[in-house]
Amino acid sequence: MAITSKPLPAARVLEPPLARATTARGNPSQPPGWVGWAFLAPNLLGVLAFTLVPLLSVVGLSLTSWNLVSGLSGIEFVGLQNFVDLFVDPGFWNATLRTVLYAGISVPLTVVGGLGLALALNRDVPGRAVLRVIFFLPYIVTVVAIGMVWLMLLNPSAGVVNQLLGAFGLQDLPGWFASSHWALPALIIIAIWSGVGYASMIYLSALTDAPTQLYEAAQVDGAGAWTRFRTITWPSLVPTTVFLLVTLFIGASQGFGLIALITAGGPGDATTVVSYYMYQNGFQFYRFGYAAAIGMATFAGVLALTVLTWRAQRGRTLHD
Amino acid sequence: MAGQTTLSRRAVLGATAGAGLATLLSGCGGSPGPRSSALQVWGGVPGASGPDELVAGFEEQHPGEKVAYTRFVNDDRGNLKLDTALQGGVDIDVYFTYNSTAMALRAGSGVALDLTDRVRADPALAPYLDTQAPRATVVDGQMVALATAREPYFVLVNEALREQAGVDLPRAWDVDDFHEMARALTRPGVHGAYSVPDTARVSLGANYWYAPDGGSNFGDPAFLEWLQLGRTMIDEGSAYPWTEVLARQLAAYQQNPFLQGEFALWPTAPFNLRYLNEPEDYPHDFRVAAAPVPRTARGDWNAGQFNNFIMINPRSTKLDLAWEFVRYWVTDGARAMLGGGKIPALDVLPDEEVLAGVLKEDPERFFDVDSFRHAMFTSEPKLMTDTNLTAVPEISLAVEQQRDLCWIGERTPAEAVSTIDELADAAIRRNQRKA
Question: Where is the ABC transmembrane type-1 domain (chain A) (predicted)?
């Protein structure tokens, strides 16, 4: 008798799989239902304590004025005032614009670079395995090491990059982290450099799943390389691309480590993206309610963009 | 199913959420945790730089009492850790506050005991009652923090570079003299000065960010003059290029280019002397002299402050012992802190003993001792304590950001100071609205 042929228990009672199987077999020696929950409890508690409760706390906090030091008794309910303030806060909108620029440039370039690299490494080139490791390395290097190395490379007067640019005869070299015009582009370059290897690895794994019979059929039909890429490779990579766009954009919108380490949001506020603006308000100004409101606004923005991206890819994959 | 225990989804999730929330709230609720028998003291100075010796002295003077000193790093994260601990009910009896930002938060948030009556009752602590040159933080009439140290600023001078340039060591000078000397010391590979002293502070003294009506004071020409002087000196090369300061993150490591002879004049405070008398860790081949902070046409404030404020947690279960410890720190225990560059806030030690303690062993090898005696004591530096702490974190950030943009040449001093004025006014208004 197949277990699944048995009717499920009443809808309002949730029993873990173990308990359901026990009921189905009717074996009284099987452990009772709470045992399954006991196994789930550590993970469930972890998710609640470190994800759900903090998430709900942020929602509540965004409706308050609180400086932490005054304790719970110092929490003052202010309704939607933080969101009203946010709406007319030029600092927030400037930070949002910088975040859009930072993510909007770095993420597509990372994805395109990763795709190109994956296509190159998917061929039978000598030392392919070593090359894959080399390109992936920046992704696993700690942000502190990345920051320190790039700080030296991009030093305006003594850095290797400007010396190379100077050797090519370029005048008026970039000030990089010492210039409000170049600091954000410098961060974008670093983000692309450290993310391309990761994107290429994801693409490489997707390429191994590409349907070989379609390529064979296309070759028989006389399709060229570009046609094969356009009609077979790319459609099969669309879900991977969407995954990369969404996850990298979420990562970029939360980008904090490099900025805190290298520029602290400067010069001026040239690299103060939303996540750093939230940090400043929370942990430098101790405006935790306002920082929570910034977090909620960011969450809404990223969610909207994720949904849009997801919808945009529908009907464009190989399997649709 | 009869007799078998089943749990509804709602019951399980509800119970778990309740447990999670209870855990969270108990962590933030400030209910006292387990109490130690030892007095718990949190400070930012490493134990080996004085606090360990001070604690040993206190325990010797108070047989049977124990003190546990915990060091926190005095940066944003370290202060957040202390604030969280204070709110979370961690066993802390006495703690330190080192900057105006943290003081602004703690002084009015119920985590500082009112010390007024105890100070009034003790004649030895009478200087803390002085309102002309305050050494204590007073909020709403309550004295909540006592300065344990004074930090007179001075201008350190690379003696080798000064002698090469053939200029005299100043004993009394103004900002124009400073500018002229920096120019005289400038030559290929060497900038005259690291930066300019905070001349607005020198002109205006305590609470210089606030106008008499409580609003922003950045419309005062002193701020424009400060930014303008910095920009002029950077442009002409007599001050260190600010682009290098940003690119090499030198604000936190000013000692490195000074030790390497990249600039000759260094406006700073005694805590940086530690880099100048430890040749193994910080090798250099020149002696260092000190000049007083140059005065301006409008004032002669030193720009240094009474600092290192000691406070008592009102939740302490050992309030009397905590007060005994505070009193010991600012009086008999002050000697132990000299090695860490901490000059006592009260006049409890002879100047010569303080000088010897701050300059440490073999001072003549590293320093022009007489110049330090003059800069730190006989020139009688005018120190201060800020009493208006409105929107200090926001204003500090605005000043730093606009100073950077001005000194890297992207904004004019007038534009920079105008922006600071706007941002400061907005921050002050927002804080007043909250209050």
Answer: 96-309
Q: How many CB pairs lie under 8 A apart between chains A and B?
A: 133
The distance of Cα B420 from the centroid of its chain, to the nearest Å, equals: 22
Beta strands in B317-393 (DSSP E): 343-344, 382-384
* Amino acid in the structure at residue B170: P
Is A177's CB within 8 Å of B19's CB?
A: no
Cβ–Cβ gap B7/A48 under 8 Å: no
pLDDT tens profile A197-219? 999 999 999 998 878 888 888 88
Q: What is the pLDDT of residue B15?
A: 53
Nearest to B20 among A49, A67, A70 (CB): A49
**ipTM entry:** 0.84
Say if B260 is an interface residue toward chain A (CB within 8 Å): no
Question: What pLDDT score was predicted for residue B1?
Answer: 38
Count of beta carbons in the 10 Å neighbourhood of residue B326: 25
Residue A23, phi then psi, degrees to nearest 5: -60, -40
CB of A51 within 8 Å of a chain B CB? The answer is no
As a CATH number, domain B154-303+373-434 is 3.40.190.10
- Using a CB-CB cut-off of 8 Å, the residues of chain A touching B244 are 156-157, 178
Matching CATH number, B39-151+306-359, of 3.40.50.1860, 3.40.50.2000, 3.40.190.10, 3.40.50.970: 3.40.190.10
Domain hosting A24: range is: 3-50
Residue A62 in any domain: the answer is no
Whether residues B106 and A69 touch (CB distance < 8 A) is answered with yes
Domain B154-303+373-434 in the same topology as domain B39-151+306-359: yes
Q: Is the pLDDT of residue B260 over 70?
A: yes
Q: Is A84 on the interface with B (CB under 8 A)?
A: no
The helix-helix angle for B221-236 and B175-185 (nearest 10°) equals 10
For chain B, say whether A90 makes contact (Cβ under 8 Å).
no
**For all residues of chain B together, what is the average pLDDT?**
90
Residue type (1 letter), B284 = H
- Measured between CA atoms, the residue of chain A closest to residue B419 is A268
Q: Which residues pair with B142 in a beta bridge?
A: B139
Span B183-197, average pLDDT:
97
Look up residue A52 and give its two tokens.
Answer: 């759900």
Residue, of B183 and A138, whose pLDDT is higher: B183
Percent of chain A exceeding pLDDT 90 equals 52
Tell me the pTM.
Answer: 0.85
Q: Which of B127, B245, B15 is nearest to A263 (CA)?
A: B245
The answer to whether the Cβ–Cβ distance between B25 and A72 falls below 8 Å is yes
**Distance in Å, alpha carbon of B31 to nearest chain A alpha carbon:** 10
* pLDDT in the model for residue A188: 95
- What is the rounded distance in angstroms from the CA atom of residue A119 to the CA atom of residue A154? 30
Scanning A145-174 for CB atoms below 8 A from B yields 151, 154-157
A218-267: pLDDT as tens digits: 888 888 888 988 888 888 899 899 999 999 998 888 778 889 989 999 89
What are the structural domain ranges in chain B? 39-151+306-359, 154-303+373-434
